[in-house]
Design brief:
By secondary structure, the protein is an alpha+beta fold. The protein has five helices and four strands, in the order αβααβαβαβ. The longest helix has 14 residues. The structure holds iron/sulfur cluster.
Amino acid sequence: MKESPKVITPAKPGIRKANTVLSNKELCTLAKARPGVIEARIISPASVETAGWVRLKCQYGCSGYGSCLTCPPHTPPPDQMRTVLDGYNRALLIHFTPGSKVKATVVALERDIFLRGAWKAFGLGAGPCYLCKNCALPDGQCRHPEDARPSMEACGIDVYTTVHNAGMHIEVVRIHQQCPDFYGLVLID
Ligand code: SF4
């Protein structure tokens, strides 16, 4: 009897998971081994809050606005960032001690995680970019694209709600003597 041809079911459209060998526990351990890290948790990117008002806080309240290529208006607006976040399954939310090298740490973690198979890994830090004395803004070409990363807030992420959603600690800074809570995020998959 003639064998009937095998029916190949096409792959389901949607999000493809990156081939990382790292479990949630291993990712948190990797982050916690870095200097200045208080806590690290795996969260769902769906719980990362984006909002239109965040850019107003950059534009009317931060001296870094428009000063570098990692700050608004040069960064993805909230709706674009939402689309980016919706393309991931896992993210690593990291709480830092004041004065920590947040951006350098998320860049290092992004690289570590990428090299273990998560090709979509991307880090977001806190605050403007201080890698160059004067940003290459007028030329529009970043001098250190491998190290320069935007902050979460620069991409329209409401850091307070995101941190609360994760059950982690953050407080509004009320007085100059108060130490702020610094956070970074690494999108993984
Ligand atoms: S690395 Fe330099 S050129 Fe790139 S965003 Fe930062 S300050 Fe600007």
